[in-house]
Amino acid sequence: MISKLLPKASFYDYQEKDIESIFQKMDNKATTRLLYQLPTGGGKTVVFSEIARRFIAQYAKTVIILTHRKELCKQTSTVLKSLVCRTASLIVQAVILKQAVIVM
Q1: For every one of its 104 residues, what pLDDT tens digit does the chain have, with 9 covering 90 and above?
Q2: Exposure check for the chain: N or C terminus, fewer CB within 10 A?
């Protein structure tokens, strides 16, 4: 089903492999907690935005992404706008600012 999702963004091989691995682990009902980390510049915003997009498309659930900096809120909002399915809605919330941005 994931291959039918549009738009298809371009990812580095390790990012695509990691995203697929995360979804395999989420599909495994025995896995209840996941932690994913990348170094600075590894593409965390792009990766978690794609995970949110695919999760919404696959499971038809709401996704909430929390950030702790205004700059990260803006960056996340920009990436989500470029990746998100048109029918999906996400809320990006900057916790420190207590400001919510709805991305359609």
Answers
A1: 443 443 456 899 999 999 999 999 888 877 778 889 999 999 998 898 899 888 888 888 888 888 878 888 888 888 887 776 544 445 555 554 555 555 55
A2: N
| Structure token digits, residue 11 | 């990812």
Residue bearing tokens 């963004």: 9
For the CA atoms of the chain, what is the radius of gyration?
14
CA distance 21 to 25: 6
Q: What is the dihedral of CA 40, 79, 6, 100, to 10 degrees?
A: 120
Whether the model pTM is above 0.70 = yes
Tokens at 30, concatenated: 């025995």
How far apart CA 39 and CA 61 sit, in angstroms, is: 29
Question: Tokens 């792009």 belong to which residue?
Answer: 46
Strand partners, 63: 90
